[in-house]
């Protein structure tokens, strides 16, 4: 248009203006639409504009013009629609709903009923509007209309959005941004209707992003915080739909949305609570939001909704708590806010969705150690058992996981068993979900740590599926199945059944070919199973010895004599020695136990010592692990039986270590340490080392105040030490003589044997001879001649012989019962008895007062028989006695000291 058109001159040019509106450029359209808007204010001009075909290009500007053009075009159409005749023409072009919106007044929007009628009309014809007129006029009306028109357009779009395919069209038409502006800057009705429209549009995934990008989240949060009741409801629902999008979860929290939603869930009306809980459900899927919900006080309102809400509220709140319960600190909060009883009730009595969500929340809560006491006391375990049995795949897996965690405490083991959980867990061993299988076998492993529960596990038929899992499971399942079978194998009753189910070959295979975890668990299972003799043979036949040698797991197998040969032949001793030096605590225990058993075979003793095992064993004896001390000490005891090894133990510094256990060890350690010293004391050089290291006072003290086994071993060691001349003095000085004599009087059989042997050794010292007699030793020794066993009689008669060599002790034995006992021993005893008894009779015969008693006891015939047929010592002693009986001249007798 080359010149400015004056309004008063434009009436005649309306057809030209309409043509420019249709075909002109943007600048021309801007001028023309403004002119037409002004011209359309009069009835005459309205008719002219309609007759000139103005309605279609005006609608084109509404749909596709600039914001200014659209606003002016709407104003023009609104003027035109005020004419009833033209209104019908506009309705034909764009539909009655749009015309109704054009004609909407402020008074109409003040009455909710009028708005509702408009919405109803719009809803009935939304398809026509969407297809024929498109979304653009409505969007334009929101941009350029007056207040009532904007609200009405929002309602129209809201209703149109109820049809899913229209949601995308509205967004494509640019409808989201003006709706966001309406929620942010509009009046109360506009905010309400805009929020409702955004709520429905947010059902579309792309629209969720578009609404957030358009800045829609902040104004919606503001409505939840301080809007009217209806605004809060619509805004909370909109945020619920928007929060399906992960980015929006963060954006809502960043915009401060969590606190007002928590407040609404606590204080709102029923619909508001439902929508707010739904939004919190979605928001709680993000870890950072979980903390924010907890800090905002969100746990308690959600718990109350689970307890007291309607069905929708319960479902939404349970969903939120299910998400929140994945976080450890919030698990505790839920329990402390009283969440467990209502969740448990909902899991038991709710509808399908409620049961699923609350049940999963309870499963999460069961994973918190702090909540175990809450959960077990409130019956979660029976619920979990039912879910593991009857639930869907996810529920079965979750319930199995929860039972696995709960099964770690003694109380829960009992509760799971009582609830029938073992049967369900055994069934799940054959489940087609690997994670569920792993949790089930883990739970059974925990349960199998209880002796009573093992019985139930076996009774429910667990052994066959466990053996099958050894063969077909993944590595984790195989390791845990081996763990359960190993635990069951602790019970001697089940070792046969486990072996008969075919477990040994796959266990051997795992020890041979598995990773370190598999080797460890399988070897442990074989260790327990090998406590049964028949299983030891089966393990060997399955080729188990070589891989077990490599794994260093041979303790129980080495208790079988044949296996000791096979283990040594398979090269088992060197790797055991390596483990003894550098393995973990359990490996050291196992290695020491295996070497202990292997050392029972004489041929293995030299091999073990040659491998340098003694220092490693001594290191374990010095260590802090009580089990390692005990086992290693026993192994040293076995090794020390051979003469060469006695020297090796001493040379490697073993004697001070062993003496330290006699002094400071526990009861078991003292017993075995004293036993080791007994064995070591046989070696001549060790006698000196033991004494020089302070062993004699310790052994005397143990012989005096220890338990029976300790006294036996201590007196045995003193017997060995008493052969050494210096040790005779040291033992007496340490109070050994009264201690040994007390054991002759009150000790058990072995104690009397060892004490009498020690006294025999001590008696060759002159001072000790007097001390023994003064302390009443002769009657105690004679009592053994009467009533002792063969060893006691040997030692007692030997000690008496040495004692009576001392002329001061050559006293008359006036008890006629004593001499006949010696004569009987000389007649009926073994060779040592005869030697010692005849020696005693010889020394006694040198006392004039004893001669008649000796003769009267029938000694002459016995002595003559020994002269005729005894060994050299017996003949010498018998001849000496006969000669002593025939003379009164003591000084003519060449006394001899027995060797």
Automatic annotation (TrEMBL):
SMART domains: ARM (SM00185). InterPro entries: ARM-like, ARM-rpt_dom, ARM-type_fold, Armadillo. Residues 17-181 form the Armadillo repeat-containing domain. ARM repeats lie at residues 53-95, 133-175, 174-216, 215-257, 256-298, 297-339, 420-462, 461-503, 502-544, 571-613, 653-695, 694-736, 735-777. Signal peptide: none annotated. Belongs to the eutherian X-chromosome-specific Armcx family. This is Armadillo repeat-containing domain-containing protein. It comes from Phytophthora kernoviae.
